[in-house]
């Protein structure tokens, strides 16, 4: 059903301009004509012509300017063709990421990786045409190559830098891990990738960074209602106090450092990074539902580690509820985000329960094994176990 709806939206030409992709396409159009990619009036005109009508005026690409080379080619192709190619590329990112994670877990002989393919936020990301699936590819490549090919892992982190606000505790632990492990090749790879993207951005638009800063100061981003825990905390306590939106990231960083430090000499990103990713998503100062595709590596890890089929079914059901909320937009435009405020805490809670149940089971197995060994020794001493006869 998920694939059918996605393909239907792909061929519906009247739906293309109503998606976030129209913002990427409008930005690419500005860049291709050597114009300001953050010009509100120009973007508003292009977005309206594409069919994107926002009650808040023009919509901007709020990613850092080193993201501009990603959308620059969209300025040379039409809206529908660009949407088709962009959507197929996003779908390929999802398929690659889930398959790579399945391989990294040893190709388990089950279908639990289907949770990744059908994950609700991933479906929303495909429908909206958001670039969060590119970020997922960068995260998966980092998990795969951080030990064997650190320079390549560093290069892949450029994709994570498309949305750095989603990696605040994660990035702090990454820096601490690099210092402890002295993995300078990884830092070199990241530095090369960022330097190259900054240089390309300068060639495309030399004034991009100044234009971006001007947009931040004039677009009123601090007044935008954002469906994430950090904004809700600020909304509940004092909406004008923008600094409250950074309380959760600071708390997340403090927890992350403590979590890492106790494991610093045996740190394994595949094993220990799942919880860190989920906390980073929950504590992000700015995030949307589709950004939760980054939870896929952690949730697949939890599904593989859990011995409880009911836990896996519960995860699949929670993921399906996200797609059900999408149907609610037919009656209320904000239903998708108002009805899914629970998701980021839910993924974290599910992961903790799934991995804890597995750890308890392993402890019982080890305990039974130890008891069996003790029984064997005691029975051997008492002579209840016959020695093999010598012939």
Based on CA atoms alone, the radius of gyration comes out at: 24 Å
Count helical runs.
20
> Beta fraction of the residues?
under 5%
- Low-confidence blocks of residues: 361-391
Question: Care to count the β-strands?
Answer: 0
Question: What number of domains?
Answer: 1
Question: Which structural class matches the secondary elements?
Answer: mainly alpha
Distance between the termini: 69 Å
Largest sheet: none
| Element-by-element helix/strand order | HHHHHHHHHHHHHHHHHHHH
Oligomer: single chain
The helix content, as a percent range, equals: 55-70%
Shape from CA axes? globular
Q: How much is the average pLDDT?
A: 85
What layout of secondary structure does this protein have?
Blueprint: H1 2-11, H2 13-16, H3 21-32, H4 40-50, H5 68-71, H6 79-104, H7 114-117, H8 120-128, H9 132-145, H10 150-160, H11 168-181, H12 184-204, H13 208-218, H14 229-237, H15 247-261, H16 269-283, H17 296-305, H18 309-327, H19 335-338, H20 343-382
Describe the structure.
The protein contains 20 helices and no strands. The longest helix has 40 residues, at 343-382. It is 67% helix and 0% strand. It has one domain. By secondary structure, the chain is mainly alpha-helical. The termini are far apart. It has helices at 2-11, 13-16, 21-32, 40-50, 68-71, 79-104, 114-117, 120-128, 132-145, 150-160, 168-181, 184-204, 208-218, 229-237, 247-261, 269-283, 296-305, 309-327, 335-338, 343-382.
């Amino acid at each position: 059903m998920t694939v059918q709806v996605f393909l239907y939206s792909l061929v519906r030409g009247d739906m293309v301009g109503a998606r976030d992709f129209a913002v990427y396409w409008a930005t690419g159009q500005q860049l291709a004509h050597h114009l300001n990619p953050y010009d509100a009036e120009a973007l508003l005109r292009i977005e309206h012509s594409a069919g994107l009508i926002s009650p808040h005026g023009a919509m901007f690409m709020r990613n850092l300017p080193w993201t501009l080379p990603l959308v620059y080619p969209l300025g040379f192709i039409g809206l529908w063709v660009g949407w088709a190619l962009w959507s197929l590329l996003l779908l390929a990112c999802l398929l690659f990421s889930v398959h790579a994670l399945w391989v990294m877990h040893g190709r388990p002989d089950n279908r639990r990786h289907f949770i990744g393919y059908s994950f609700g936020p991933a479906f929303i990301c495909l429908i909206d045409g958001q670039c969060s699936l590119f970020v997922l590819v960068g995260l998966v490549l980092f998990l795969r190559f951080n030990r064997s090919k650190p320079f390549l892992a560093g290069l892949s982190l450029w994709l994570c830098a498309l949305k750095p606000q989603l990696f605040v505790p994660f990035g702090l632990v990454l820096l601490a891990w690099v210092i402890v492990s002295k993995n300078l090749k990884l830092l070199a790879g990241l530095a090369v990738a960022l330097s190259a993207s900054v240089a390309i951005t300068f060639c495309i638009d030399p004034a991009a960074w100044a234009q971006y800063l001007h947009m931040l100061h004039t677009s009123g981003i601090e007044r935008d209602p954002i469906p994430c825990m950090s904004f809700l905390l600020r909304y509940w306590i004092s909406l004008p106090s923008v600094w409250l939106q950074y309380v959760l990231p600071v708390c997340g960083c403090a927890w992350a450092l403590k979590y890492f430090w106790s494991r610093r000499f045996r740190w394994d990103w595949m094993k220990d990074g799942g919880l860190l990713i989920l906390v980073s998503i929950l504590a992000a100062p700015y995030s949307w539902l589709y950004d939760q595709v980054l939870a896929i590596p952690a949730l697949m890890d939890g599904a593989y580690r859990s011995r409880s089929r009911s836990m896996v079914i519960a995860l699949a059901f929670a993921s399906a509820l996200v797609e059900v909320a999408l149907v609610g937009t037919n009656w209320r435009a904000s239903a998708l985000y108002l009805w899914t405020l629970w998701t980021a805490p839910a993924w974290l809670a599910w992961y903790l329960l799934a991995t804890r149940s597995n750890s308890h089971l392993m402890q019982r197995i080890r305990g039974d094994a130890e008891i069996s060994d003790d029984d064997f020794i005691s029975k051997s001493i008492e002579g209840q176990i016959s020695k093999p006869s010598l012939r």
